Amino acid sequence: MYLAQCAMNVCKLSIRMALKLGAVCFSTPENGDGEITSSNNTENRSPRISPIPFQLFGGLLHNPNCRQQLLNYFVANDSKQYTFFLRLMAKLLTSFPDEILVIPGSTDKTTVARYVSEILVDLFELAAKETNGIVLVEKQMLFTQLLPAIVKHVNGESEGAAVNCLRILHVVLLDFDYDDDNGDYEFFDPFVRSILFPHLNTLFRSPMGVVEDVWSLSSELMFGLLSSDSSLLGEVEDLNIVPTVMSLLQVPDEFQSLPSHATQLVQMLLDSADVRSELLYESGITRSVVTGLIFASKHKEQDGNLLDLSIILLNLLHHQFEKNRQSGRSPAPAGFHELVACGPLMLQFCTSSDVDRKMNGHSEYVAPEKDTAKSRTNDELADVASRCLVFLSQVSGGLLDHENYTTERLTAQYVCRTDIWRAVEWRIFFSKQERSLGF
């Protein structure tokens, strides 16, 4: 018992020391605050921020015996230590983000923003498993000072800090339990609607330079927020979220894969009764789907979104087909003609199915060694693609003829898969007959 009490006292002392040492940043003059230094003095001066408090916090968080004491100490917040900690971290992120830290015993240099974000990732990820109170004890400070400071570092310029900050936002916003009856959303909602979403909208309006991890984590964060709060879907137009979601499908060619959450976001908007279809087309859904399909087809082995994107295409085509059927040949939505560019891709996907597995729509016996997840996915993709071709012929027949998607050209290109093409050809033929008869 005595040893345990001693250990607790040492832990508390370490926390106080870390807070006191970190407080130096509040009294340090900043550039533009009356401090005049020459370029030579700036180059030769010692770092303003000591790495010692960061090492103390890091040591406490990574020591199993001290970690729980630190969390309990912060949640209790008896002398406002946690309040000061949040304020200190926010100050460091806003006033000294690019300050270089030289860690004793390490040859690597890092910035204040990166080191602070690493500490906060560890703190909140550990707290999410141990105590929910860490996000409730100082809600106002957390959502009005610390998290806005974190959002500013979500950019394409500093990959390490940006990725850490997105992880912090994800765990704080999605991994803790908030109770509306207790007013837990008083500061949560304004932060998400007025600070986070506007920042992400700006970031992906001109996403040049955004690295793949930041792109992927941003997609995951947006999907998590929209899927966990149905009221946000009713506000997507006011929040200007739809163009941002569409931009997430237009990944740079050098990326390894398309974020799966980007595809899920588009499907979520399509499925929502709160989102106008006109808004989706005005926001460029057709161009985004075509771009995403082209990218995914080039990265087929690594990318698992090809089937999901093809299903999205099928939904768009089917929706327009139903509109035409119910109200006559209605004008196509803005940009709808761009979907014709998917025709060659859909034909290519039709030939990806194994002829021995599926012929003319009928399943055949499949040897166990050929019955793999990949082959089953290819079969499903071929089926969806052939359906897309049917609806393309229904709603964009003239455009297809203009693009010369003729039987002769296609069978010459895919002569080794004539059985599959014949199935598609007959499906299109019968659909045209139904259309001519008014079905």
Report on the architecture of this protein.
- It is a single chain.
- The protein is mainly alpha-helical.
- Among the domains are: 1-24 and 48-174, Alpha Horseshoe (Leucine-rich Repeat Variant); 325-439, no CATH class.
- It is 65% helix and 2% strand.
- Strands 1-2 form a two-stranded antiparallel ribbon.
- The radius of gyration is 28 Å and the shape is elongated.
- Residues 29-47, 355-361 and 401-419 have low confidence and may be disordered.
Briefly say what this structure is.
This protein has 439 residues and is mostly helical. Helix content is 65%, strand content 2%. It has 23 helices and 4 strands.
Q: What structural keywords apply?
A:
ARM-type_fold, 4 strands, Leucine-rich Repeat Variant, single chain, 2% strand, Major Facilitator Superfamily (MFS), two-stranded antiparallel ribbon, 439 residues, mainly alpha
